[in-house]
Specification:
Layout lengths: L3 H14 L13 E2 L38 H13 L4 E5 L2 H9 L8 E5 L4 H9 L3 E5 L4 H10 L4 E6 L11 H11 L1 E6 L14 H4 L8 E5 L9 E5 L1 H10 L1 H4 L6 H15 L2 H16 L2 H4 L9 E5 L3 H13 L2 E2 L1 E3 L10 E5 L6 H22 L2
Parallel strand pairs: 1-10, 3-4, 3-5, 5-6, 6-7
Antiparallel strand pairs: 2-8, 7-8, 9-12, 11-12
Amino acid sequence: MEPFEEYLRHRLAARKEENAFRSLQVNHHLIDFCSNDYLGLAQLPSEGVASLPRSTAWGATGSRLISGQTKVVASLESYLADFHGAEAALIYTSGYTANLGLLSCLTTRHDTIIYDQLIHASLREGIQLARAKSFNFRHNELDDLREKLDRASGRKLVVVESIYSMDGDAAPLTEMVAICQAAGAEMLVDEAHATGVCGVAGQGLVHALGLQDQIWARVHTFGKAIGAHGAAVVGSSLLRDYLINFSRSFIYTTALPDPLLARIQWAYLEMAQGERCHLLQNRITQFKEALDPGIAKHFIPSDSPIQCILVPGNEAAKEMAKTLQAAGFDIRAILSPTVPKGQERLRICLHTFNTKDQIHKLTELMNQIIPVHEERSIC
């Protein structure tokens, strides 16, 4: 068997051969059209932290069950539960650890998890750690969901995102709730890219549709529109108690520190005023209306700040991204294997801080360059 170093070298060489090699890059001089800072809260001064005593520690010093439980986190969890229309909330250190810790401890081998084929990697890995049987269903296809539920046994859990991170489209949650109720299944909805985006004050798509009492568990992350870090699972008090006792990524992880929690609380209060959410929707509308109809047809339908144009092939997607970056716009290509081969794309993220002029110049450029690429590259 080859040594580890040789194994790593061969794997990386294969990735380069596929033109899918990943590397880190800093584009601070470019206009941000790629980050998840939809409301621009990550860029604002450190409000909230100033209200903490000067003696506040910058580190939590331990897990929540040891030294990481403070009045600040207890207060924030109470606020989050009320804001998102749930009985209780439990904060995790990231959306990844929340999804991993939630899904890995809920089921037995007698149960079934059914999930949308486009869910995030963190949800997939949580499902892999679970003992349950699992099936995926075609993205947002209700008939396929019904068929998979008919085949399921034991307790049934359906896992979806409300807004999908790589497509920007929304799940038909109202219809899914009805299907799950008829099948005796519960739903888990990852609201990572709907928090701060959907609803008058950014409560998420579930709340905007009035479904908060019909969906068993939701995950709201703080690393996107909230502009911070961490996540919360919201649901019943019983679920919260269960996770405190059985969710390994909660039990064995150092807690978030009070200064960060105070920042999250401040960001929520800022978001709750509604002005930023309204401004974001205006920016989305402006972008979509400025695209030529012939260009817009190549975009995945989306009313979210995530606007994706399919550019099949890693090389073609990277080439178009470089063209836009050369014009001053920080837009990244999403390559396979992150998305399936043939569905490579540019992922354009809109923000409240993107000016009307910046959006006008971006769409004007796209209207010009996309026909150049269209015949050989774009579906």
